[in-house]
From TrEMBL:
One of its GO terms (molecular function) is metal ion binding. Keywords: Iron, Metal-binding. It comes from Fodinibius roseus. Residues 11-100 form the Gamma-butyrobetaine hydroxylase-like N-terminal domain. The keyword Metal-binding applies. This is DUF971 family protein.
Amino acid sequence: MSQDLHPASIEVSNGEGILEIDWSDGHHSEYSLFGLRKNCPCVLCRGGHGNMNTFDRSLFFVEPTQHVEIEDIKQVGNHAIKIFWNDGHSNGMYQWESLRELCPCKQCYPEQE
Ligand SMILES: [Zn+2]
Ligand SMILES: [Zn+2]
């Protein structure tokens, strides 16, 4: 992946429960907030250091069991965003690379139903 790959724009729609990213290479990603919350990359949510950077894209296609909203997003350096969730959690640093890897579109994730 190119080093310069980064989001050109990030848009949150709490009403629809999605976060959309337009990437610098023109790719478009749409994540369910529930799936993003469940894939929070922090140690706590991943259940230990050994599980860091293991994500589950199928979580973007499950029926949410919990209503999640994003209250704020802050860019961290030049490589990540921090998401502030309405449940008070904000430990997760979502790196561009991980977010792109998580992209649940048909092209990036052909195994989806
Ligand atoms: Zn977390
Ligand atoms: Zn994609």
